[in-house]
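Project standup — Tuesday

K.O.: blocked on the structure for the chain from last sprint. Re-posting the sequence here as requested.
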Amino acid sequence: MADKYDVIVIGGGPGGYVAAIRCAQLGFNTACIEKRVNKQDQPALGGTCLNVGCIPSKALLDSSWKYHEAEHAFAEHGVGVGKLTLDLDTMHQRKDKVVQQLTGGVASLFKSNKVTWLQGSGQLKANKQVQFTPLEGDEQSLEAEHVILAAGSVPVDIPVAEVDQKIIVDSTGALEFDSVPKKLGVIGAGIIGLELGSVWARLGSEVKVLEAVDTFLPTVDRQIGKEAFKLFSKQGLDIHLGARVTGTKKNKNSVRVTYSYDGEEHEETFDRLIVAVGRRPYTEGLLSQDAGVTMDERNYVYVDSQCRTDVPGVYAIGDLVRGPALAHKAIEEGVMVADVIAGEHTQVNYDAVPGVIYTHPEVAWVGKTEEEVKDSGEPYKTGAVPFAANGRALAAGEPGGLVKFVVDEKTDRVLGMHILGPQASELIQQGVVAMEFGASIEDLQLMVFGHPSLSETVHEAALATDYKAIHVAQRRRKK
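H.V.: unblocked you, prediction finished:
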């Protein structure tokens, strides 16, 4: 192992490993420090996302949806399955296999790109020195021309519900239940709480979600949020808004939760409780006192628009810095920083970063909500069309949800796109492309969309902004 590199990346999650690979592609001698050890007690790349986040949760979401369809939807299609059974062990094995394939793939990419994987933890010290503590062996002092901080984030803890990963769990523990809880409580109705609650509800849990905020998905367009609340409630998620958990008491196989709701104190016992109230930057041990890197009061590392910290040659990306804690944001920041180091012209367009909730139907958005544009005082127009008017959606048995555009009335530019419905995570990319290229809504109106396809709802929603939609009745707004 060398003691000097062109680039050292601390953290091997989506942002970190991508940054390391891109730096190596650009000709830099690059090392990536990652301390994670997986369930098989082996060092693993990929961070939270690949190991205990995005990937395993989506594997369970897909498996649980297939079970749900077999139980509730196959008969409508004329498909009989006989007595339905659930083998949770096999479901977990499949999930773990997917994780191992992807994390092993990252290790292979490191090898082929000649990235040095340093298995252990790293701390940035003064003058871009990095103290490396290996999983096995003695500490070593390293130095680099450039250091990229990519340590990621961890779940937020709350004092009233202390996680033990048995009865009270965080997002990691919620992926490993060895049986389906009869009654499951979820604290937090955000992305993680809704996705994990959906998994276990489909498999048979009675799920109650307790959310302290009075508004459902407050950062999502209100029209989308209200419709999503209705659909998720119909699916069996018992969502209580304005419900603040005040205490928990664990028993051997259950937990009693007290919470204030609607002006009264309530108490309920659950077999398992998931705490999903958000994530925070993981900065423990990352920076020495003399490192020179500035953090704010919430421990986010301060960076400029190209992820430079206050220390020349030191960058920070992903969940450590401002903006949404999204793997794809971290990935693009990792690429951007590598290109900046190489002296190339580059910039992440933070106005066109999509968000997705992988419930069923999915929720996805990019750009501004109608509420944000309305508050700005600028004139705007909207168009919204339900999937119930789409032939492909009906044929697939997916009529719930809608596509909505928010458009600048003066310039006709697309300001935002919002979707609740089938394949929203894929359809939203049409809005991302449109915004990245500065498209007008007329550009989308004039395009030819394949028939029958879910994308036709995107076309109809674009047409609806100017009262040109064909397959829905529209009433012109009063000026």
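K.O.: great, moving the ticket to review. The first strand starts at residue 4 and ends at 10. Residues 81 and 264 are 46 Å apart (CA to CA).
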